[in-house]
Write a structure and sequence with these properties.
about 350 residues, abc type-2 transporter like fold, 13 helices
Length: about 350
């Protein structure tokens, strides 16, 4: 038995990827759940508008953080600021009172704002009453923010996990080398491999969105084409990550391990489950470099708020940059994985003709 134990330890020591995952993944989960897994919103950014904006802004206590005071703005500007995602809370004042407009797509901020408003009752200026109105998700239903997030998860799962497993399976079966010796360009092989996963992910996303809007009454206020552009960019990123994982994995077990290590941070740190505003600055900056963060913003902005593309251009730009980098690296790695087989094909001796002289 002792010999078996020693053998297993030696085998584990040689498998550096598995060993790294056994050590790194628990530490990563500890950091994520310790620092990021929180529904408590510490600060609430607000914009104060209307005739009594100056008086009310001076009376707002923590956790409200006034970002802008505009005494000349009205209801239309307030709703536009919420729709475009510029701020999640707007205090719209009048001569006799104030209406707090909340962005219902920011579920946890809206809930925290309702609780914080109870402390404002005794600090508001004399004669100024405060009413609350929730836009875009009036009942603050969790399903309204989770259905767009599930659509993002479908694209992430199919693009990363399924793609990496499919390409690795072909490498193990030897069919990838057979494709390499065929008269096809590496780009043709690469695009041909990812095309089926692209179609499957797109169909799955449509099914999820249609079922979510029908079964859970989730609104779709924006443009289908705007959401489709964001989904296209995000899917290119996930497919590139899947091909990158397959290019450095020798078998499906290693591909699953690496896929999980890329999935977990994105799910936990993208704002899909826990609000980014509740995370410490160091952990929050990790979320800002993850592609899922930006597609969640696009999906919720288009579906729930009807945001135009001009309000989401930064998320589109970030996805385009990340997609260009990841897709370029994936293409290079895929070409390198095909290079040995192509080199063997060119070095193969030509067969001798029958009856030729020795």
């Amino acid at each position: 038995m002792w010999a078996m134990i020693v053998k297993e330890f030696r085998q584990l020591r040689r498998d550096r990827r598995t060993l790294a995952m056994m050590i790194v993944l628990p530490i990563l989960m500890l950091v994520v759940f310790g620092y990021a897994a929180s529904f408590d919103v510490m600060t609430i950014p607000v914009r104060v508008m209307g005739p009594a904006a100056e008086r009310l802004a001076a009376a707002l206590p923590a956790p409200f953080e006034v970002e802008e005071v505009d005494a000349a703005a009205g209801r239309e500007q307030a709703e536009m600021a919420l729709r475009d995602g510029e701020v999640p809370v707007v205090f719209l004042t009048s001569a006799s009172g104030a209406t707090v407009l909340l962005d219902g797509s920011q579920l946890f901020i809206a809930t925290s704002t309702k609780g914080a408003l109870s402390t404002l009752a005794g600090r508001a200026p004399a004669g100024l009453t405060v009413d609350v109105e929730v836009l875009f998700n009036p009942d603050l239903e969790t399903s309204a923010i989770m259905v767009p997030g599930l659509a993002a998860m479908i694209l992430l799962f199919v693009g990363t996990v399924i793609t990496s497993l499919g390409v690795v399976r072909e490498r193990q079966a030897g069919t990838l080398e057979q494709l390499a010796v065929m008269p096809l360009r590496p780009t043709d092989v690469f695009l041909g491999k990812i095309a089926p996963y692209f179609v499957v992910a797109a169909v799955d996303m449509v099914v999820v969105i249609v079922a979510g809007t029908w079964l859970f009454d989730v609104p779709f206020r924006g443009s289908v084409s705007i959401l489709a552009i964001g989904a296209l960019l995000f899917l290119f990123v996930t497919l590139g990550i899947g091909v990158l994982i397959s290019s450095v994995s020798e078998n499906q077990g290693q591909a699953i391990q690496l896929a999980l290590m890329t999935l977990l941070p994105q799910v936990m740190l993208s704002g899909l489950i826990f609000p980014l505003s509740s995370m410490p600055a160091g952990v929050r900056w990790i979320g800002y470099v993850l592609p899922l963060t930006y597609f969640v913003e696009i999906a919720r902005g288009v579906m729930l708020r009807g945001a135009p593309i001009t309000a989401l251009w930064q998320s589109y730009a970030y996805l385009a940059i990340i997609g260009a980098v990841v897709f370029g690296l994936a293409t290079l790695r895929f070409r390198r994985s095909l290079a040995p087989a192509r080199a063997r094909r060119h070095r193969a001796p030509e067969p001798e003709l029958e009856g030729s002289a020795p």
